[in-house]
Amino acid sequence: MSLSVYDVYQNLWTLTHRAALKPMLQKVQVLRIPTDLELISKVDKNKTIVVLEKPSIYNSIQILGKGFSHCLAQERDDFPRELIISCLMILRPKALVDSEIPFFLMNDLSAEGASKENAIILSAKQSSEKNGILNQVGEFLEKYPKAAGMSDLAFEVMDEMFTNAFFNASIDTSQMNVDFKIERTVNVKLKAGSEIKVFAKCDETSLVIGCVDSFGSLKRKEFLEHMNKVYAAKKTTPQVGPGGAGLGFRMIVDNSTGIYVFCEQGKRTIVASAFILKGQKYNMNLAKHFHLQTFK
Amino acid sequence: MADQFSTYITTVKDQTVMELRGRLDESAHLPKIEEKFNLRIQLKELKAVNSYGIKVWCQWVQQNSHVYSIALCECPFVFVKHFNTVQGLLTSNMTVLSFYVPFTSDQTDERKDVLLYRGTDFDQGTEVKLPVVYDSQGNQMELDVQPELYFGFLK
Known about the structure:
heterodimer; B: 3-stranded antiparallel beta sheet; 14% helix
């Protein structure tokens, strides 16, 4: 029998907080891997958080491939916070779907609307706007001295997210990716009414970088197959022929401590990366939390 | 930050030097090398690399496999970090002569990228000799990469 988040992890919180969180934590199941491996086919995947006791990005991809949406690394200091976030995403998906930028990406656990303090949100309608966007994000990050040492990782992530949104996510009315095989040198212009938003949120301890497209074209199965392929070998070979290199999402994941992918089919996809402002080594080596949630 | 990519080629006697500047991305065009000479590539001013830039580089390397030897100088962090994750970025006719290693300070939030030289600070198959680096307040700075990964290309 599977246990709730409260059953397993209540001691992570003080008595006061525990009491307040209990109603929520009791409604969500938790599966510890490998401890609870025999239960993996018996739980409700939509209401279960998977906690990896020996986390690796490859293991996370395997778990997500079995239909789970939230895969957490138990060993991290922010594990309690990520448990709460995962519970909120499971129990209150409307708060996720209805907000411009989801509350937890803005470091606000209230779920009552995101605070935009210390944040920047920019929009683009054509791919040639990338350098201007990167410049503005750079100016934003300059306000945070602790983010200075991380800027190489953050820019790499922002660049890949922006490019993915324009060249992989954009779709026509027949739901085909129109730009997937277009050379990246082409300036892709979105149709009227479509736009790509990028955002960054920074405080004393963390940085979140993200991108929102207005297509919602991400296909969970294909995405995970691709991720499985790029992480199956120690080294990834760039794809030949037209289109991208097929390395972008690996670069996003490798650089980040947390990856958040949410797709409202046909409406929008949000991809975000979290960083902890403790230097590049810390971020690249830390076991990663990985969320992949799709809504119809 | 968003410097447009450019290349500058100079030849002095039998040594050709190609300098790469800016962002190695979809705007990057690398010239075909016609001769079978030794090439030195200066990377100090390479500011960023994206996945498409890596693809451009790997294609260029394949197209120029006839080049006898390619020496890479002053490789920045944004380039070196991909040596151990991307197949075809560093090939058998290439030698890294020098590369940057980032250090960070918890006390001042400073970052310093220190240049290491082949023959002095590292060699193929030997342990990298890391310098002691101090921030502007005299605190010892910490290596900001995982050595076994970042220096993995020297094994």
